Fold this sequence. Notes:
Elements: H1 4-12, E1 20-26, E2 31-35, E3 38-52, E4 58-70, H2 72-80, E5 86-99, E6 105-120
Parallel strand pairs: 4-6
Antiparallel strand pairs: 1-3, 1-5, 2-3, 3-4, 5-6
Amino acid sequence: MENLNNHFETNHQLNVVNSVMLTGFVGADAIIKNFGNQKLARINLAVNEFHKNASGETIKKTNWFNLALWNSFADIAAKEIKKGSKITIIGKLQTGSYEAKDGSTRYTTNIHVTELKIASTETNVA
């Protein structure tokens, strides 16, 4: 994975940063779609947080993130990433909207993956 300092220095020179780094567990096998000569894999990533409540009990909160992996990353996802795989990604947030069947506007937030490391392909529970 790219040196994180170099990653931030490059983006900082432009005076903007849109960068996300996550490590978590894949919730289901990737959904693969082909668009001509482009390939897209969609993955949901569970990232757990732990904190103690007022009683001292450890509380687990799971946050789910939608990942978009294009082309060579989509190929890797199709072959090597399965439900329960532990992965680390670096990417950028992308937002969008679409009109639902009922006519309402729906908003989306995805992470466009630019770097990927597969830490484990063993099945783990998120």
